[in-house]
Amino acid sequence: MELKALCIGLPKTGTTTLYKALCSAGLHAVRRHQPGKPAAGYIMHRNLLHGRPLLHGMETVEAVTQPDTCLHGMNVWPQMDADFLCRVRAEFPRCTFILQARDTELTLASIRAHGDLRERIVYAPGLYGAATTDNDIRAWIGRHYDSALEVIATLGGVTFDIASPEAPAALMQAMDIDIGWWGRANARA
After folding, report:
1. DSSP characters for 90-153?
2. Which of 44, 86, 118, 176 has the smallest number of Cβ neighbours within 10 A?
3. What is the CA radius of gyration of the chain?
4. Does the model's pTM come out above 0.85?
């Protein structure tokens, strides 16, 4: 199999919507959670560090819609690792990097409402435990979007506002696929 899509956006920005949309197009997509297995991004990042092919152990996966792992004691954010992203491009030249944007205030509200994510996310790259205010998180979101836009400009991909009516068309055009479903997958977000 070949990795056809990698989301480089943040959690709580439509990763479940992307997952459902890509599955509806017939792709074997995975999210952060895989029942009974470590998270896909964690496996891929570990494979990078050990010099193995990125999809070693996940050979049937065609799309990863949330590569980060944000748990107490384990924060892995491959979508923020330039070496990882360059390796993805080298191994999978046709992979579409997807940056789905979402309004910062809606993202922040969703982070706050998602269990203890607000406490866990402070250990992400760029925050390193120092995010004590919502303004710190807002600034981090902005910095991530800026750097992810540079990735798209350099390595290629697509970016869109997840709430835009044009989002599904942008994704279908960038990947040359037909999506059978688009909507709001996570009503709690």
Report:
1. HH-TTPEEEEEE--HHHHHHHHHHSTTHHHHGGGSTTTTT---SHHHHHHHHHHHHHHHHHHHH
2. 176
3. 15
4. yes
Question: Which are the contacts of 31, defined by CB distance < 8 A and separation ≥ 6?
Answer: 15, 16, 19, 40, 64, 65, 66
Nearest Cα residue to 88 out of 154, 31, 28, 147: 154
Q: Work out the burial of residue 176: count CB atoms within 10 Å of its CB; fewer than 13 is exposed, 13-18 middle, 19 or more buried.
A: exposed
Q: Quote the pLDDT of residue 189.
A: 54
pLDDT, averaged across the chain: 91
Residue of 154, 155, 131, 132 lying closest to 143 (CA atoms): 131
Q: How far is CA 122 from the centre of its chain?
A: 17
> Parallel, antiparallel, or unpaired for β 74-76 and 69-71?
antiparallel
